[in-house]
């Protein structure tokens, strides 16, 4: 069995090496994608949201609030409009995503002991930025209120340190054990690695058999006593080898440019990557076995590859997916892969922690390969 | 009784509502070259694909080299070689790599494989071109490479689907030399062709028409069994004469060959007397009218016409 499969593998490898364009694509694209996706998602931590301040009061007290607001890196105060109308226009045009308005008489009312309202305008279309600006504004005002209260108490003879304890008796001390910077990149990078490994392998395998069908070479091949298993294994082996090369370069890029700590759990990471690549190859072969043309194969492959990113928890936690859709997530090998790789890279997990994910991935490989063999027919019924 | 290489009984293949091959009873003796003749769509390729184990029969049985194709198609594949109509080797592999690959897939050991591949390359005259990509070979050489691939595992039976389609006469001659050589080694060859002069080279010819075998025998037997009268007519103007004769009673068909007409008639129709009268009455000069022996093509035309009920060809 392996002898014949190796003849097929050698044939595939020869064809691949002669197809320079595909070869370059296979070796360069995953690297490029990892780099681009990584860079694009690195800014998942939002900074510099364009904002405006309308300081109608122009008093020392209102200036304090403006200064405090601009000290946060999350927002960037780009304009100071002259009227509320102008602020609304800027928001409507999309030039700013938030505006804070300090009304006239702000300081006078505070001094008079009255309750004062500041107005915060937010553009709700960007649902990521809006709550961040709101959070910044709340923190600024909370701090401002506390300062004022402490100063008020001091005037009545209460020392500032005691005043602070009176106003804020309880503190939360947070200790972030893993991914201390709470960086989105740390969360998403395993998904990016999986996605890039998956994209080309599924596509290349999917068109493999239909291409032979279209060129007519399958006819000659099917007239020989080659078994279905030999054909499927022979097609799988060379692409598995090339994918392992890609695993190496992608992990290198992830380690060097995106601070994914690869070295410590390297053997386990390699095992996970190898298994995951096999699931992708097997999925591609299954698509290949049931497709009659390359066009059809690409269609099916796209319908598999696209939803994966959204549904597999690679991009956002599957807890964000509604309960009735979540079962679908468990059908994607990428979910188990990115979960396990996150555990290894962020938490330093060992085999005993991720063995279930390893087992599930291995199960996927066996089921998909067996299915591909069964779905392929040597004789037209 | 001579042992048979191929034997089918009631072999039938349907594609949806279309019957591609209908109730085929075929027997091919070991070591003979059997030529399948018939127009496109007659069911020749479908028959071959069933006999190679590539297509499941809808009905009927077929034995190839003693193996039931319906029951054990994979065992058949070990015993036969197949050369499809369309070039089906890997264009991005060299001639030698293609042969090595197929020899490997047929499970030949590496020493034997090397020897056999070299032998095949030399035999079909591709040894000098062995390192050329298959795509870069000429049409005739591609066909010879395909034949070599079909024979690399020394099969008992060769199925060749139009092995000389589109080839120039020297290439066709070369291909037929190779086929005779293979037959001389005791291999049975089933070959399809549109070229009637190629059918003359076969020991047995089978005529297929609309999925049925409408006649078979050696080229000589076929000609001897010709059931019609046949005249060669030299008349002027020739197309007018052809039109007149096509409309005449007792004439079942007229074919034009250059400046001559071949006129078919029912047996005993007395064409030799009637044709000159008919043409003379219409003012067409008939220079010569003489009975001739049928060629294989005449036999084929006549059989096709009879199979269709004699109506359409007139």
What is the average of the pLDDT values of chain B?
Answer: 90
> In percent, how helical is the residue content of chain B?
25-40%
Specify Rg of chain A, calculated over alpha carbons: 29 Å
Order of helices and strands of chain A: HHEHEHEHEHHHHHHHHHH
How many separate structural domains of chain A?
2
Could you characterize what this model shows?
The complex is a heterodimer of chains A (about 375) and B (about 325). In chain A, α10 packs across α11 and α11 crosses α12. Chain A folds into 2 domains: about 230 residues, no CATH class; about 120 residues, abc type-2 transporter like domain (abc type-2 transporter like fold, 3-Layer(aba) Sandwich), CATH 3.40.1710. The model of chain A has no long low-confidence stretch (mean pLDDT about 90). Chain A has 15 helices and 4 strands. Chain A is mainly alpha-helical and about 375 residues long. In chain A, β1, α3 and β2 form a beta-alpha-beta unit. Helices cover about 65% and strands about 5% of the residues of chain A. Chain B is elongated, with a radius of gyration of 23 Å. In chain B, strands 6-7-8-3-9-10 form a 6-stranded mixed beta sheet, sandwiched between helices. In chain B, strands 2-1-4-5 form a 4-stranded antiparallel beta sheet, with helices on one face. In chain B, β12 and β13 form a beta hairpin. Chain B is built from 11 helices and 14 strands. Helices cover about 35% and strands about 30% of the residues of chain B. With about 325 residues, chain B is an alpha/beta fold. Chain B has 2 domains: about 220 residues, Rossmann fold, CATH 3.40.50.300; about 70 residues, Alpha-Beta Plaits (2-Layer Sandwich), CATH 3.30.70. Chains A and B meet through α1 and α9 of A and α2 and α3 of B.
């Amino acid at each position: 069995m392996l002898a014949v499969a190796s003849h097929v593998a050698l044939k595939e490898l020869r064809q691949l090496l002669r197809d320079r364009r595909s070869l370059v694509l296979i070796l360069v694209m995953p690297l490029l994608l990892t780099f681009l996706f990584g860079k694009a998602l690195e800014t998942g931590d939002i900074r510099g949201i364009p904002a405006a301040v309308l300081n109608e009061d122009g008093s020392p007290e209102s200036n304090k609030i403006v200064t405090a607001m601009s000290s946060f890196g999350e927002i960037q105060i780009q304009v100071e409009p002259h009227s509320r109308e102008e602020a609304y226009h800027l928001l409507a045009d999309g030039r700013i995503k938030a505006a804070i308005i300090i009304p006239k008489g702000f300081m006078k009312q505070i001094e008079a002991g009255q309750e004062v309202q500041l107005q915060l305008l937010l553009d709700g279309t960007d649902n990521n930025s809006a709550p961040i600006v709101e959070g910044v504004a709340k923190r600024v005002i909370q701090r401002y209120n506390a300062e004022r209260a402490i100063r008020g108490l001091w005037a009545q003879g209460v020392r500032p340190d005691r005043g602070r304890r009176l106003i804020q008796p309880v503190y939360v001390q947070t200790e972030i054990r893993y991914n201390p910077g709470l960086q989105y990149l740390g969360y998403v990078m395993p998904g990016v690695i999986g996605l890039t490994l998956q994209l080309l392998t599924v596509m290349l395998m999917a068109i493999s058999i239909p291409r032979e069908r279209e060129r007519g070479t399958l006819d000659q091949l099917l007239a020989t006593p080659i078994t279905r298993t030999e054909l499927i294994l022979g097609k799988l082996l060379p692409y598995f080898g090339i994918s392992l090369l890609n695993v190496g370069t992608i992990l290198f890029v992830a380690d060097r440019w995106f601070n994914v700590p690869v070295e410590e759990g390297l053997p386990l990471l390699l095992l996970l990557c190898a298994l995951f690549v096999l699931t992708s190859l097997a999925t591609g072969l299954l698509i290949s076995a049931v497709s009659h043309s390359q066009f059809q194969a690409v269609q099916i492959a796209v319908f598999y590859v696209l939803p994966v990113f959204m549904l597999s928890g690679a991009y956002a936690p599957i807890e964000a997916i509604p309960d009735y859709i979540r079962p679908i997530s468990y059908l994607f090998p990428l979910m188990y892969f990115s979960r396990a790789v996150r555990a290894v890279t962020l938490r330093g997990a060992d085999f005993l922690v991720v063995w279930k994910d390893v087992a599930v991935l291995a199960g996927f490989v066996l089921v998909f390969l067996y299915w591909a063999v069964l779905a392929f027919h040597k004789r037209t019924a | 009784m001579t042992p048979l290489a191929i034997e089918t009984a009631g072999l039938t293949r349907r594609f949806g509502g279309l019957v591609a091959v209908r109730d085929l009873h075929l027997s091919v003796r070991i070591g003979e070259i059997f030529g399948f003749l018939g127009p496109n769509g007659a069911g020749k390729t479908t028959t071959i694909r069933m006999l190679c184990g590539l297509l499941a029969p809808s009905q009927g049985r077929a034995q190839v080299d003693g193996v039931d194709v319906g029951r054990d198609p994979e065992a058949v594949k070990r015993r036969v070689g197949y050369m499809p109509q369309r070039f089906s080797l890997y264009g991005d592999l060299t001639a030698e790599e293609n042969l090595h690959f197929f020899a490997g897939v047929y499970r030949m050991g590496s020493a034997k494989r090397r020897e056999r591949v070299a032998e095949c390359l030399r035999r079909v005259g591709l040894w000098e071109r062995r390192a050329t990509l298959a795509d870069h070979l000429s049409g005739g050489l591609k066909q010879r490479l395909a034949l070599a691939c079909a024979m690399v595992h020394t099969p008992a039976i060769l199925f060749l689907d139009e092995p000389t389609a589109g080839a120039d006469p020297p290439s066709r001659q070369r291909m037929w030399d190779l086929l005779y050589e293979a037959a001389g080694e005791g291999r049975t060859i089933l070959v399809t062709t549109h070229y009637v002069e190629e059918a003359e080279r076969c020991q047995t010819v089978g005529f297929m028409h609309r999925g049925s075998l409408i006649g078979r025998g050696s080229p000589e037997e076929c000609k001897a069994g010709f059931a019609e009268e046949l005249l060669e007519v030299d008349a002027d103007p020739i197309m007018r004469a052809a039109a007149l004769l096509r409309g005449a009673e007792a004439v079942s068909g007229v074919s034009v060959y250059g400046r001559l007409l071949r006129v078919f008639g029912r047996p005993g129709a007395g064409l030799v007397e009637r044709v000159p009268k008919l043409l003379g009455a219409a003012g067409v000069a008939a220079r010569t009218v003489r009975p001739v022996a049928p060629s294989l093509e005449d036999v084929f035309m006549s059989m096709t016409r009879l199979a269709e009920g004699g109506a359409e060809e007139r």
